[in-house]
Write a structure and sequence with these properties.
alpha+beta, 3-stranded antiparallel sheet
Amino acid sequence: MFAIESWPDHEGIGLDDHAAGLTPMGATLTAERAPGPYAARGRFFRERANGPHVRAGGLEDTLAHLPRQDLDMVIWARTPPGSWADAMRCFSPPGPTLRLKGTIETVSQAIRDLPQARAYPDFLMEDVVQSASLAAALSGSNRLSLSLACGSEVGIPEPGGRMSLLCAYGHDAVGWESGPALSGGQSTGFAPFSLAFIPGREEARLHLSVDHSRCGPVLFLRVE
């Protein structure tokens, strides 16, 4: 299994005047050279100094890095059962967005009882419940709000709370801006079914983006 870190503003990831791309699960630093053969070493990193610091790995112990104050996001790039991917290929997006707020107990019960929830595959809703419980346990709070939406209904939530979590089920239409590059911004997609944990920070270097034309179900959850 793999574990990588992206450090857009750290010279340790550079070779000569470019940063190397890492692509095991969609957490990617796109290779990009500084302009001209005589560009000063380090210029690339200074201009990308507001890029987010991301830790990603394929094992659950990746989440042990969440307490680190130098990380903006931790991604558990889990490998789902093959049946999940097959189910999402046949999935037709349902109607209104599912929005819930309250304690983990009330939210979990609502997910199991509400008619809107029955429009989604059973495994997906059970995964939402387990993901919400995991985020609550990791953040030490019992209160949360979440939305489960598709397509144009998917929105980017305001930052805040103790921790945020997102999961794009079955597609990579949600990503993050990896910082202003020398020739324009770079966007990195989340691998399908990966869980991205975003600790609450006063200064956020992380900026999310959504390609609504390709969006399947996207879970956004915030623990208060």
